[in-house]
Amino acid sequence: MATQAPTAPQPGLPMKREWGTALSALRKLLANGDDTTQVFYIMRALNGDVTQRNYRRLLTVPGGGRIAYRRQELAQRLSDRGWIDGFAEGTVGATYRAFLDATGYSAQGLAEISMAEGAFLGADVEHPYAWMGRRERDIHDLWHTLTGYKADEHLGEACLVAFSYAQTGGLGWGLIAVGAALKSIRVTGRLDFLKAVVEGYRHGKRAAWLHGEDYETLLAEPLDSARRRLRIAVPRAYRVAQASLSAAGLSGI
Predict the structure, then answer these.
(1) 3-state secondary structure (DSSP) of residue 91
(2) For the chain, what are the domain ranges?
(3) Which InterPro entries is this protein grouped with (predicted)?
(4) Is 182 exposed, middle or buried (0-12, 13-18, 19+ CB in 10 A)?
(5) pTM score, two decimals?
(6) DSSP secondary-structure letter at 121?
(7) Inter-axis angle of helices 154-168 and 192-206, to 10 degrees?
(8) How many Å apart are CA 140 and CA 163, to the nearest integer?
(9) Mutual orientation of helices 154-168 and 171-188 as an angle, nearest 10°?
(10) Which residues contact 164 (CB under 8 A, 6 or more apart)?
């Protein structure tokens, strides 16, 4: 009996929400916060038509149509170290460069993790919604740079996923934020982590819609002025929680 060929990706159709898959992936992620592949399983299981809706919204904001028309693959652009090295000190781009050097992360590395075991649509899928999904993935670390939430700690990631839920409406982000916050209460016996995650959500609601930004232009902007323009607030509860975890000798949850 012939093996049935795998179904071709259909990025134009909303994906059915699969709560069982999402919860299983969340359990694995909470057991090992470095298992980034589980994040993409959760996104794919729960985000439904979020990417489609964000793409349609992009077409309505100033400059969004031009961004969509160009369809630049940001993973490739952000992997151009010569370009990244050219940004002046104090800019968003220079801060992103320092982020790359400090963490060892890379845009291409994140892209490769996302495609592990079919957790994400690859760059060979030629469709506007698939491109938008890759764009949403590739700006994640830029959002770390803009918000000040560290990427190499569980607290910073939890705060940014709450921020991302407010920005995008993706239920996958919301599930991860809630799961991490609840685990933090059990592990620490305190509410500092939870308060920081709630702050992240509120800051995401307050901020300008970051999906509409031209990131090539934004990277050349001074970081402080970019944060003011985009209404990205100082994460005070996050810093309190950082100090609380450090005092307790906890590097994660």
Answers:
(1) strand
(2) 19-247
(3) Coq4 (IPR007715)
(4) middle
(5) 0.92
(6) -
(7) 30
(8) 11
(9) 150
(10) 140, 143, 170, 173, 204
